[in-house]
């Protein structure tokens, strides 16, 4: 896990620019830094060392594309940038099968001077070209420079675990692991992308290829990008998740395949020259990973946070302690207080680069901090819900079938009547009257703003594109599959990338920690893609087959319990005078008046304060945008880091 950056059109006079781009994301790699500055290219790297601790420094260069070529790294350069080497690479992530690839390449005559995955990735490109992307197993974002052709080849991993941002500014192609690094380049002039704000209000995350910074884009998952010598760019998709349900395989055999795939994935995700720990919450995902890791490691450390003083019932910490005692493993926990939560927000939003309205990002921020005190890498359960049918909202199509007998128009009318009378059940009736393409576009459905609310809220709407229009091309890919699978596929392309994995990477790297996600392994996907919906979700249960597999290593009660999902007590806090006043000040600020109809904001806040309706998530969506905007466009400085 590292931070990478670079730009084309570089000259020897650009060393200070490159240094600034590296320094602003030093948190991604406190163990070292390196630069490669040659005619036409600048590469920068911040290193968090986990594999080949002495020899894996970057940028890594190779003198020629020949098999006996010598590879060098910045370790011997006394901190000065490289100026030689025909090929150079900067790489963020892990190639979990790098040892097997290295053996294959050695049999073909290729030589190596380090034991790092970075060198294997570079040599793989020289040996196989773009086909290397069909061979690697892992999480990655990288760039490779060919000095003779003046071409830059970039790629991002299959699911979008690792970030890759880029822009073209004043003839320079500029890229980095974090947007804040690109902002350090003088060729880019920051400007708000108001279209991103429009969609954020409905999705609660940045949902477009173009970020909140106009002209800065995200490289899509499973895509490569070649920047040619003339500055033109060519983007390709090298992999696409598809489903192929095996309806002949028994439930027991399905469970066997899941268990084998997960054990294998955990084994690969343990590859490191440092200790790998695990997060442990009350849910099945992290519990299953922890138990699998425990089978393969003599002693492991686990990490948990919670808000137990507010929940009134059992929280993450008490559940985690019970399981860790059962498995005889170490558990480290921390209770997040009100002050912890609110004081961390500016720094957390700065690390996110774009506004994030997911309150659980704060919980991740603290559990990552806890883990970073004892390990450099952790296993985390992201992706299990999307692959194995874990979200309760995936059960909606089954509930809707109960009203299949009723005319759609009647259901829609009843929904409108219920909503006008503030009666429960309006959403249920509305969803039963529509197809999944009509109403489902994010896991934040029901808590974020509708397109109609968005239109009333914004002073100047930048686009008339609805979330449904944005998601339609993705739904089209799976139009012939059942509704629950269509929802899963949409989440793979929106929610997982824009919310789940973004906060996973940014919150971990805020504390120089590598977060590894064994569920999002392409071999695990090759099993998940064959599982029929009836083995994943029905009206009574989620993650049916995965829970059965988990029962082999964790207690039955654990495998069958519902996930808490870092329940943050926002609803209660925002009804307290202290936080009501704080948010009221935000909602009447100059920034708020610039973008929003303030009267509507105050109505939302007051309605929530009175207890008439739970508007906490909508309030949070606006509040986090305003905080982020002040950090990046008004103050333009790094928020103070709070002691954690």
Tell me what you see in this structure.
The chain is 42% helix and 15% strand. With 644 residues, it is α+β, with helices and mostly antiparallel strands. The longest helix has 20 residues, at 616-635. The chain folds into 4 domains: 2-237, Glutamine Phosphoribosylpyrophosphate, subunit 1, domain 1 (4-Layer Sandwich), CATH 3.60.20; 251-337 and 364-390 and 493-560, HUPs (Rossmann fold, 3-Layer(aba) Sandwich), CATH 3.40.50; 394-491, no CATH class; 570-635, no CATH class. Residues 75-79 have low confidence and may be disordered. The protein has a 7-stranded antiparallel beta sheet, with helices on one face. A 6-stranded antiparallel beta sheet has the order 2-3-1-10-9-11. A 5-stranded parallel beta sheet has the order 16-15-14-17-18, sandwiched between helices.
In short:
By secondary structure, the chain is an alpha+beta fold. The protein contains 28 helices and 18 strands.
The CATH class name of the largest domain reads: Alpha Beta
Q: Specify the CATH homologous superfamily of the largest domain.
A: Aminohydrolase, N-terminal nucleophile (Ntn) domain
Give the strand tally.
Answer: 18
Give the percentage of residues in beta strands. Answer: 5-15%
> Radius of gyration over alpha carbons?
25 Å
Mean pLDDT figure: 90
| Number of helical stretches of at least 4 residues | 28
Give unreliable regions as ranges.
Answer: 75-79
Question: What is the strand arrangement across the widest sheet?
Answer: 5-4-6-7-8-12-13
Shape: globular
């Amino acid at each position: 896990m590292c931070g990478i950056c670079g730009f084309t059109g570089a000259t020897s006079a650009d060393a200070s620019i490159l240094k600034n781009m590296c320094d602003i994301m030093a948190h991604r790699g406190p163990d070292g830094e390196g630069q490669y500055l040659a005619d036409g290219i600048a590469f920068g790297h911040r290193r968090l060392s986990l594999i080949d601790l002495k020899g894996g420094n970057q940028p890594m260069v190779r003198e020629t594309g020949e098999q006996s070529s010598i590879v060098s790294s910045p370790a011997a350069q006394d901190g000065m940038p490289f100026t030689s080497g025909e090929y150079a690479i900067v790489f963020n992530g892990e190639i979990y099968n790098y040892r097997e690839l290295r053996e294959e390449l050695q049999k073909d005559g290729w030589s190596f001077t380090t034991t790092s995955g970075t060198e294997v990735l570079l040599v793989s490109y020289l040996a196989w070209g773009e086909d290397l992307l069909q061979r690697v197993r892992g999480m990655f974002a990288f760039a490779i420079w060919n000095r003779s052709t003046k071409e830059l080849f970039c790629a991002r991993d299959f699911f979008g675990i690792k970030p890759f941002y880029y822009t073209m500014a004043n003839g320079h192609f500029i890229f980095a692991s974090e947007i804040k690094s690109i902002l350090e380049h003088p060729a880019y002039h920051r400007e708000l992308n108001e279209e991103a704000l429009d969609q954020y209000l409905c999705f609660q995350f940045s949902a477009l290829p173009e970020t909140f910074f106009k002209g800065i884009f995200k490289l899509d998952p499973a895509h490569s990008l070649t920047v040619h010598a003339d500055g033109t760019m060519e983007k390709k998709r090298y992999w696409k998740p598809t489903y192929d349900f095996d309806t002949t395989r028994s439930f027991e055999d399905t469970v066997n395949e899941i268990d084998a795939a997960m054990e294998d994935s955990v084994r690969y995700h343990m590859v490191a020259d440092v200790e790998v720990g695990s997060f442990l919450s009350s849910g099945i995902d992290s519990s299953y990973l922890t138990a699998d890791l425990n089978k393969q490691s003599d002693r492991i450390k686990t990490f948990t946070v919670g808000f137990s003083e507010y929940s009134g019932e059992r929280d993450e910490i008490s559940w985690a302690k019970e399981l860790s005692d059962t498995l005889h493993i170490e558990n480290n926990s921390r209770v997040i207080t009100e002050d912890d939560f609110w004081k961390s927000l500016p720094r957390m939003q700065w690390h996110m680069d774009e506004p994030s309205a997911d309150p659980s990002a704060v919980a991740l921020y603290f559990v990552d901090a806890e883990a970073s005190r004892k390990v450099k890498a952790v296993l985390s359960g992201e992706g299990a819900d999307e692959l194995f049918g874990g979200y309760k909202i995936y059960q909606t199509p089954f509930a809707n079938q109960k009203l299949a007998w009723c005319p759609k128009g009647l259901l829609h009318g009843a929904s409108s009547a219920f909503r006008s009378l503030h009666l429960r059940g309006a959403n249920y009736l509305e969803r039963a009257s529509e197809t999944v393409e009509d109403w489902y576009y994010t896991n934040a459905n029901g808590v974020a703003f509708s397109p109609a609310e968005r239109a009333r809220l914004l002073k100047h709407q930048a686009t008339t594109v609805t979330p449904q229009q944005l998601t339609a091309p993705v739904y089209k890919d799976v139009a012939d599959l059942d509704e629950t699978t269509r929802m899963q596929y949409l989440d793979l392309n929106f929610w997982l990338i824009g919310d789940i994995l973004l906060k996973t990477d940014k919150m971990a790297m805020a504390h120089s920690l590598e977060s590894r996600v064994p569920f999002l392994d392409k071999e695990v996907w090759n099993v998940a893609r064959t599982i029929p919906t009836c083995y994943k979700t029905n009206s009574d249960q989620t993650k049916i087959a995965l829970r059965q597999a988990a029962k082999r290593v964790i207690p039955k009660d654990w495998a069958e319990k519902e996930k808490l999902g870092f329940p943050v007590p926002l609803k209660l806090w925002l009804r307290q005078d202290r936080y009501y006043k704080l948010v009221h000040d935000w909602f009447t600020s100059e920034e708020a008046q610039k973008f929003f109809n303030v009267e509507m904001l105050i109505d939302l806040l007051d309605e929530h304060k009175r207890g008439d309706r739970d508007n906490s998530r909508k309030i949070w969506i606006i509040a986090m945008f305003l905080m982020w905007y002040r950090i990046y466009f008004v103050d333009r400085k790094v928020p103070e880091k709070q002691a954690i």
